[in-house]
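Cross-posting from the modeling subforum.

Setting up a comparison between two proteins and wanted a second pair of eyes on the formatting. Protein 1 (sequence, then structure tokens):
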Amino acid sequence: MTDDIEPMYAFAFRRIAVLFIFWSVIPVAGLAQHAQTSAGALSADSPTLEELAFIDGIAGDTTPVSVLASGDTLTLDSEWVDLPPNVPRALGGIAITNFLAVGINVLWRDEPSTGPGSWWDNIQGGWEWDTNPIRVNSFEHPWAGAVYYNVARANGLSFYAALPATAAGSLMWELFGEPRPPATNDVLTTTLGGIALGEPLRRLSLVVLDNQASGFSRFWREAVVFVFNPGLGLDRLSRGQLWSAGANSPDRLPQTLAGQVEMGAVRLTPAGGSPGQPADAAILRFGLQYGDPFDGEKVSPFSSFTGTMEMSSLSAVLTQLGARGIIASIGQRDGPTDKVVGVFLDFDYRWDGRVGFAEQSVGLGLLSRFGSERWRVKTDLSAEAVPLLASTDRWSTPATGRYYEFGSGLGGRAVAQLEHHGRRLVFGSLRAYWAVTLNGASSSKLIQIAEIEARTPPLGPLSLGANYRLYRQSSQYDDRRTGHESMSSFSIFLSSGG
């Protein structure tokens, strides 16, 4: 079953594409302003300072300030001071964003309005599993959660304190923002997905922002953050920080920041007797590595994370979005290390019109690296708890009114890659998830995702690569035999970056 895309969403999702295109520029923009950057501090595949010379035309109008504008994040000697937590202001800001979202729904999407009658019905009534498309439940709701999360963080709340604030924002929306019964799945995806997307967005926003910039440099930085991280943007507007000069956060720029862009073609092929016909499409993929978990620096939530995004001609919107970050490390760390044991938070969303899959998970993982700077192997092993998983099912529509199911269970991954001078040449991964169905036609599911990729050494600024991916799903039913579905994809692409 295909996902009908309303024309009104097209522009919004194109803006999201621009964000991820900008991901490939963020390493350049951020490193160009790093006052203490040295060649030894950069990863092997990061641009040199000479290669960043072209950015001077943009960043050249940034000037230090000795006189501060008004604001409560700075002292008189122009040093950064963290805001004290302000819970009432955070919750008030979240309530305002929900109010604005209700206005958008009523005026733009022609949704019915809410009021005391629907509020009371929602409070008194029961909860449900809603029938929205997977795009809405597994992408748009997490994105809204990222807004709540960043409002909380902008008001001084820590990573962990922002979690209940994000959940509170979701509950506000479910009970008072829509004239329909609240949905269990929405609260889970908004909260967990909002944190998994929100903290990477916050850190990338800090890279883009420069409180000492002026002119066009200041304008585009503030505009980009306001559009793609409105939680932070609205808070900066309320404080007058969009235009005032001041100090930058000391953790604004990571020691390692690298992006890549891939452009090519993909063929999707049903396998193992699965229904459907092969389909060919153009693809555009983006990747980001923020921070280095092996560098020995103190670990804080998402001090190191990876992000991925894919768009294809099969859909007017993105087909994949993922983020994986370390929350905390386990054990003693004294300088650079080759092994990191930690707790990780993951977000994954995919919908290409054939495979629908989404999960938010928390896991215990082991990151390892072997070899030297010239040749190096990196591995990632983890076991994960999956509070909520969504996956397509051919029998789900009659039972639930939607083409996918919700489940909860366990997962794991094994990932390895071979690097040459910091650039990935070979990559392989195997992920598996087993889930008990919470709402759907099946009783349980086993999902396996295997992927292998190879690239040539760099040919100038580019490399040529090929990727094979296999998605397999086995579904157990109480009233019919086990169902098996598979979909493979093979792509070839040109890649910039590592």
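Protein 2 (same layout):
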Amino acid sequence: MRTASDRSLADLEQLVDGELHVERDGDDVVALSARFGGLTTIPESLAGLRALRSLDLTGQCLTALPASFGELVQLETLKVDGNRLTSLPEALGKLGRLRSLHADDNQLEVLPTGLGRCRGLKKLSVRNNRLTEVPPALWRLTELRCLSIGDNPIQTLPEGIGSLLHLEELYIHDNGLRQLPSSLGQLQGLHTLDLGHNQLAELPESLGKLRDLTSFFYLSDNRLTAFPRWLGQLQRLAYLGLTHNQLTSIPHVIGEMRGMVELRLYNNQLTTLPPAIGRLAALEELYLRDNQLVELPMEMGDLARLVSLELRNNHLSTLPASFARLQNLRYLDLRANRLIDVPACIERLSSLRKLDLRWNKLDALPPWLEDLRAKGVKILM
């Protein structure tokens, strides 16, 4: 005899052009996945799956979700990415067990205020929609760990975001933001913060309080003209992206960022670097292409863990002799500089695997370049 769950699945199978993946606990359906199946509507009978904990409808052709979704009271994970949704039902506020909601790549213009009643929600991802604001009700979601609202035409971020005190990951890239609320500094559990591809000319000093910001801080493609000095307080940050801004100098406080593993500063207007950069003892990757660097400090030879160094399209005519101490350096890109001789220090880079010297006006090549080739170093000229 067919159960109510069987009938609900049969109704759905008639509408989906693809395979249903079903997980059961006895007679109960607890997980259902129907991805990329051309589904244009949801049968009302789906609400009969009262034991459902996970529902994945990614990549369908849905323009709306029925209010009956509010009856799926055991639901913990809902994925509706890549549909054609212009709104979400207010009835989602009835889903008291909901922990994760994914609605990226839709056409959402607003979020339901009812979401504010999903107090156990830990992840909300609505990237690449048409949202122009974040409803104040969302600031009641104090258990949120991850919030992704990037790639929406949201031009103002309210101070209320500072109430999300358990937030660990925040993605607000590609929004056209011109300023940020100082309350962001209250989110002291953040380890990942993406502010890239906005129109920010300055940042609130309160961000210097984010001492747990250790994984990723992305500020690329904004309008910053100065390297914020409070960044020196983020001493455990591993990745910093400040590319495609208008920076003309780097202050000595960068030397305080001793946890830095990867630093990206390309596409700025830098002419030199401070000696303090040599104090970044953990640094493995440094990207400096498309600046106006005319020289590098001797202290860069102290970057003992450096593996990859990109210096393409600068104004360098030589390298400091201290580069010979970079014994872990494997990749060195010197394309499109002003070198006329190959710097002698390169010969002593024992770990080097690739050297790119193209688009320099080299007068003569030292014989030791062939020795490097014989050792397996790929040399491009």
